[in-house]
Amino acid sequence: MVIKKRCLLWDWTNTDGPGHQGVPGQMDKINFNGPMKSVSNWNTWTPPELKGRAPFRPMIHDLAKLSGDDWNRIEGTHNGIIHYFNEPERAGISAEKAADIWFKQVVALRKKGNKLISPSCASDPNGQKWIADFMIRVEKDPPDFLGLHWYGTDHNEAIKYFEAMHAKHPRQRIFVTEIASISRNYKDVLSFTVEIANWMDRTEWIEEYGFFGCMRQVADSFVSPEAQLMKPNGQFTELMVKLENEQPMKI
Length: 251
Description:
The chain is built from 6 helices and 8 strands. It is α/β, with parallel strands linked by helices and 251 residues long. Helix 1 (68-75) links the parallel strand 3 and strand 4 (81-84). Helix 2 packs across helix 3 (125-137). The longest helix has 17 residues, at 186-202.
């Protein structure tokens, strides 16, 4: 039986838009009959090329998404799973402000059958401090899931981090909303990806996880070109093909 936990992090630039040409046809090549469970694009709008083939996970990425068309799309979500804030500790959003908005605006989304993911913070000390503060502030009505990011080179360190966070917040199953090896050596990236994916597939309290990222251009100098899931021409890399098809994954 296929274990479906993998989220496709489909960059918004893959979708055709004003002033830029995407590669929407590549979505037709994704195997949604394998371990891929859902799709997210760091936005509130569903990529039209998804065509209902998998659930879309909208994101309230930042403060700007709390009003206007973005908020209307969030409010129009029914029986979904919604991300709340992406690395807010790096965007100048305090845990106090996020908790205030949580109670005033976000919790009500549950009335439409939605489940809510906590803000997804980086795994550095600032990120850990921020999410600990937030979870205390929303203790009376906490998120359904705990969102986490992890980047590094040692899969054992990643697993230790997830286990420690699960021990601190045992009531919330975990969404690893971004993860990748930052090694510049492909063999190391592949080994990391295989070990982590297989561990998460067999770990009951991991709800979903998304490897960064399916995009034509490398996002910044921090992430590794060797971990890309899409080539500059829009074709999928070997790593992407393995992620969408293999379970267990193999080196």
